[in-house]
Amino acid sequence: MTNPAPTPTPAPIRSRLRRWLTPWNIATILVVLWLGPRFLPHIGAVIGVESGDRQQPAFAVTTLDGRPMSDSTLRGRVVLVNFWATWCLPCRAEMPLLQAMAYRHDSAGLVVLGLSVDRTGPETVRQFLTERSITYPVAMVGREIETAFGGVQGYPTSVLLDRTGRVRYKVLGPLAMASLEPAVRRLLNETSAAPR
């Protein structure tokens, strides 16, 4: 039995395909494919589709002002954990928005916890925070804390924990404040019972 010859593609279709597959269109497709997975968690946070794995990360840090903070001491509060660095320009851009969010929702039960991955030492980070009037708690951490939160692919990365300590949202990039504001409000309105 012989295989039938493949049906030739009509010339007009090949011509249209060649015209459509320009370097610009291919580059656009690649950018969309690269950005898509990064933006989907942001869109999900706005509309209420969770991007977290609902794990309860176990962690313990000491803030730059000497306060111990851990998953158990923060239980009962909604916690926005933000991995950042002083050398990260998008991190710098979102810090005033994080500060405003921390102030706006403090009485409702939100804690913003900054986790600096800087290796330059605490004095550099303290000076950076002072110059920018950042007052929410900040600790310096290593890879073990990033691993506790399921790993960090880039900075800034924000992880939103509900009152039971479960990861409900995880987003990469400086748009976290705009996208996480609705998610923060939803979690603050939930009771301390297990999430739906």
Strand content: 15-25%
Low-confidence stretches: 192-196
**CATH structural fold name:** Glutaredoxin
List the domain count as a whole number. Answer: 1
Using only C-alpha atoms, the radius of gyration works out to 22 Å
Which strand order do you get reading across the main beta sheet? 5-4-3-6-7
The CATH homology group name: Glutaredoxin
Strands, count: 7
What is the helix content? 40-55%
What is the CATH class designation? Alpha Beta
Structural class by secondary-structure content? alpha/beta
Largest sheet: 5 strands, mixed
Distance between the termini: 60 Å
Q: How would you describe the overall organization of this protein?
A:
The chain is α/β, with parallel strands linked by helices and 196 residues long. It has one domain: 3-Layer(aba) Sandwich (Glutaredoxin). 42% of the residues lie in helices and 17% in strands. The chain has helices at residues 11-20, 23-47, 89-105, 122-131, 143-148, 176-189, and strands at residues 60-62, 68-70, 78-84, 110-116, 138-140, 157-161, 167-172. The strands form two sheets. A five-stranded mixed sheet has the order 5-4-3-6-7. A two-stranded antiparallel sheet has the order 1-2. Strand 1 and strand 2 form a beta hairpin. The chain is elongated and about 75 Å long. The chain starts with 10 loop residues before the first helix and ends in a 7-residue tail after the last helix. Mean pLDDT is 82; it is low at 192-196.
What is the topological layout?
Blueprint: H1 11-20, H2 23-47, E1 60-62, E2 68-70, E3 78-84, H3 89-105, E4 110-116, H4 122-131, E5 138-140, H5 143-148, E6 157-161, E7 167-172, H6 176-189
Parallel strand pairs: 3-4, 4-5
Antiparallel strand pairs: 1-2, 3-6, 6-7
